[in-house]
Structures are given as C-alpha cells and as structure tokens.
Amino acid sequence: MNTNLRRYAYSIPWNLFLLTAGSFFFALGVKSLAVPQGFLTGGVSGIALLIFYFTKTLSPGLWLLVLNIPIAVFGWIMVSRRFLLYTVYGMLAITAWMELLTITFPVHDRLLAAIAAGILAGTGVGISLRSLGSSGGLDIIGIILHQRFGFRIGQISFLFNATLFTASFALMDPDLVLYSLVLVFVTGQVTDYVLSMFNQRKLVFIVSEHAGAIASAIMKEAQRGVTLLEGRGGYTGLPKQVVMTVVNNVQQKKLEELIFTLDPEAFVIFENTFNVIGKGFSRRKVY
After folding, report:
1. How far, CA to CA in Å, does 126 sit from each of 109, 188, 195?
2. What pLDDT does 117 receive?
3. In a domain, 280, yes or no
C-alpha cells in the first residue's frame, strides 16, 4: 500500500463512508428481514430486538441507541477518543438507517430469510470494522475487556451470545431462536470474509537446494522481500535453507513458475494468511 493510499485509509471522509455504508447494510438486514420474521441478532442489537418484541414500544433502532449510550459513556473513559467518536457516529448511523428504512423483503421461507439477513448484517459489520471505529455495542465491551483483562474478543462475543440465546429459549418460540442462531452464524462467517477479503495473502515456504538463487529471483523479479530460515533435513540431518516470503493471490502462479524453473525438485508450501502487517502490506490499525 503506497503512502497516499495509506493516508487516505486513515482519513475522516473514508472512515465515515465505511461506517455509513456498513450501518446501512446492517440496518437493512435487521429491519427488512430479521424484524419481520421475529428473529434475534447477536450482541446488544439482539437485546434491543428482544425488548422491542416484548414491549412493542419505541423501535428496534431507538432501543439499540438507548442500550448503546451507557456503553459508549463507559467506553469514553476506557478506550481511545478517536475510536469512540467514530463508533458514536456508527451507532447513530445505524439508528438513523433503521428509522428511515421501511422495506420488507417478501421472503417467506424462514431459513432463507435468516441466511439473507445474516449476509446483509455480516457485510455491514465487516465494512464497519474496516474503519477506525465500529457500530458500537459488543465491540466496545469486547475491546475494553480485552485491554483490561486480556480476554479475546471472540470469547466475549461467544459468551454474550450464548447467554442471550439461552435466555431466549425460555422467552420465545424455539424455532425462531434456532433460525436466529443460523442468522448469527452466517453473520459471523460473512464478517470474517469481508474483513479478510482485501488482506488475505499467501505465506510461502520453499525448501530447495538452490535457496539462494530462488531468494534472489523472488526479490528481483517478483519484487517481494524474503527471509532465509536455517533448517535441517529430518532424514539426512544435513543443514538446509528455507526461503520464506509472502505474496498476494495474483502473484502465486508467477512465483510457482519462478521457483520450479530454478529447481524442479523444490518443496513448496502455500498457506493462506488472514492478514499481513508490515512494509509493503497492511499497516497496523491504531484506534
């Protein structure tokens, strides 16, 4: 990523755009599919929907805002100001979209509705998390507990949702709760996909008798950095050099041709990576 592109990724307009777009997709999935079917989502929005279904007062968007306000106040003290300001914008954007959207998708099959709602909500969450903020709720709680006590954010989300859905079985139709679990599962999968879509790279290990020549060719022709690792053959006990490098998906085929042209007997491992941070790739996100 060049310097100008990196600077733009940290700019206020770009981050507000991500939060606005992410909030739209999340609100669309909830308002147009989840609410008409009576589904729950995960996290704080799930509690907001549960309260709405039983009280029939306010609206899902307003309940979500009400629940998010004390969390945001607590986060203002515990988390960075920039992260909280972006997150407050994301929270307000979700509430605004949920109040403005009046579309109800005519999906009658509940399973299809749960999957579609999960896709839209997951897309929204993933886009929002690519910004320097979030859509509020459980994201703030997760970051606070992670920074203070070392809990993994995934653990916090799992425990929170496990408690929410366990309670829901006693309050709602079990079929609706199970469909809601499908929705939450799809949301998580799509969120991970959106987050990794532009960051996934190939980690490459090359074991070869011509490691030096291959390393030079990768640096010169593929314009990628390399690291030479010292290894030892398990059978022969002889020392070997292992070439380690990282390339994007487009460069994989070119790298294969380069390696096997120099050494047809090379042993090569390509492994998917979720994210690569460092020179020439992504920059560490600082909240």
Report:
1. 26, 9, 5
2. 93
3. no
Give 250's DSSP letter: G
Among the candidates 196, 217, 232, a domain finishes at 196
Total domains in the fold of the chain? 2
CA pair distance 250, 242, nearest whole angstrom: 23
Confidence (pLDDT) at 25 = 94
Q: Are 49 and 116 in contact (CB under 8 A)?
A: no
Burial class (CB in 10 A: 0-12, 13-18, 19+), 80: middle
The pTM score is: 0.72
How far apart CA 203 and CA 27 sit, in angstroms, is 36
Residue 284, domain member (yes or no): no
Structure tokens at 228: 């030479």
Could you give the residue ranges of the DSSP H alpha helices within 79-202?
81-100, 110-129, 138-149, 153-171, 174-196
182 and 225 part of one domain: no
Residue 284: count of CB within 10 angstroms of its CB = 7
CA 102, distance to chain mean position in Å, is 27
Pick the last residue of a domain from 141, 165, 196: 196
187 and 248 co-located in one domain: no
Task: List, for the chain, all residue ranges whose pLDDT scores fall below the cut of 70.
Answer: 1-10, 79-80, 146-155, 198-200, 249-250, 274-287
Residues 245 and 124 in one domain: no
91 shares its domain with 146: yes
pLDDT computed for residue 3 by the predictor: 52
pLDDT at 113: 94
224 and 141 together in one domain: no
Residue type, 32: S
Nearest CA among 109, 128, 131, 130 for reference residue 120: 128
